[in-house]
Amino acid sequence: MPPYIEIARTLEAVSRVERRDDKAEVVASLLKSHPPEMLRPTVRLLSGKLWPPWESREMGIGPENLGEVLEEISSRVVSPEAKRTDLGDLAEMMVQNRSQQALTSSKMDALHVYDALRQISVQKGAGSLFRKRSLLKGLFLNASPIEAKYIARTVLGRMTVGLGPSLMSSAIGKAFSADERLVKRAYSFLPDFGMVALKAFRGEIFEARLSPPNPFRLMVFRRERHPWDAIQRAGRAAYVVRYGGLRVQVHKFNDQVFIYSYQLRNVTPSLQVLAEGVMKVRGNFVLEGEFLLVQQDKILPRSEMVGRINLKGRARDSAIPSFAASDLLYLDGVELIDKSYAERRRLLSRAMEGVAGKPLSAEVFLAEELVSDDQKKAEKLLRRSLDQGFRGLVLRDLDGLYTPGSMSRWDAVIYVSESQRT
């Protein structure tokens, strides 16, 4: 297995190189040298993201605990000021001068580091912090200074080398002779660069598709700065009420419901009541829409919604979790993103017949929509939605396709400030 020090040295090289293309070449060179079974661990170690965002994991070690582990191996006290600096640099220095040594001296392979770090994340219950710290201490005792630097940064989720999604897409493209645009597209459908790299190696980058119940990156809507002008030039279009909730995607697959946040977190455990309501919709599907908390026909603030998702108890007991469905992207084995918005909305309405209730009164409902070329009707709907405390409208191109992870060329959020309303 490739040694972890190759990854650490690559990260160090990327941090020192200035030109984007040169950074991508450094990473690509490493990826080309690794066997296919190591591509996913290697890419995840490079990015510092050891699992996809929808996996319910967390490292559970903060700067304080990390500093204490470094104190143990070096027999030196870490000052509070030092703990507020780059702990990667601190780890490099402390390991250089450690007083404790591993029982055996051997190079750590990358897979061992990957597995050990993931093992830290699954420790739960009584004594879990002790076990986490023991695993981390074992890594530091075997690590060279530069390895310790990037192990510490990985634990804290702060790689600070500038290896973001765009650069990683370029590196994977260069490593496996794939068009960078196709790599980015694949990442939109499968937001895990470890798996994207494996697809690129296999020549399967063209085959990226929606694959429920795995989430994808939602399409991005432009923010329309001149709302009244946008309505005037829109012609015949769809205007969908934007209620002001949290944008989510909802998957129903094999009689299970999965709800993901905009950041791709799996928030289903916090929204079981809502999941039960969605279960009533027939078929396997992927929906996009808004998660809302409603009380007495009023939408609660977004902070209440975030509190419900995070299980912090801030949401009021009588608040009803609701889902405003606005788009249908997959239905019974058929991907719908290449169909027009008008066709997707027609299929959505049909799929929710007999299930969707009245807006703000039912657990699941269709987001209100106006299809018109009448400017006055559109302006009236916008004013009414704002008067009701909603967040405006989403202007949808009736012929528009759905492009995961990309900015829509035409669809836009229309919101009017107080000064613009006059």
Produce the secondary structure layout.
Blueprint: H1 4-16, H2 20-33, H3 39-47, H4 63-74, H5 80-83, H6 87-96, H7 110-121, H8 128-142, H9 145-156, H10 165-175, H11 180-189, H12 193-202, E1 220-224, H13 227-234, E2 237-241, E3 246-253, E4 256-261, H14 272-278, E5 285-295, E6 298-299, H15 302-309, E7 320-331, E8 334-335, H16 341-351, E9 364-366, E10 369-372, H17 375-387, E11 393-396, E12 407-414
Parallel strand pairs: 1-12, 7-9
Antiparallel strand pairs: 2-10, 2-11, 3-4, 3-5, 5-6, 5-7, 7-8, 11-12
Overall description:
Helices cover about 40% and strands about 15% of the residues. The protein is of the alpha+beta class and about 425 residues long. The N and C termini lie far apart (about 65 Å). Helix 1 (about 5-15) packs across helix 7 (about 110-120), helix 10 packs across helix 11 (about 180-190) and helix 10 runs parallel beside helix 12. It has helices spanning about 5-15, 20-35, 40-45, 65-75, 80-85, 85-95, 110-120, 130-140, 145-155, 165-175, 180-190, 195-200, 225-235, 270-280, 300-310, 340-350, 375-385; strands spanning about 220-225, 235-240, 245-255, 255-260, 285-295, 300, 320-330, 335, 365, 370, 395, 405-415. Strands 3, 4, 5, 6, 7, 8 and 9 form a 7-stranded mixed β-sheet that branches. A 5-stranded mixed β-sheet has the order 1-12-11-2-10, covered by helices on one side.
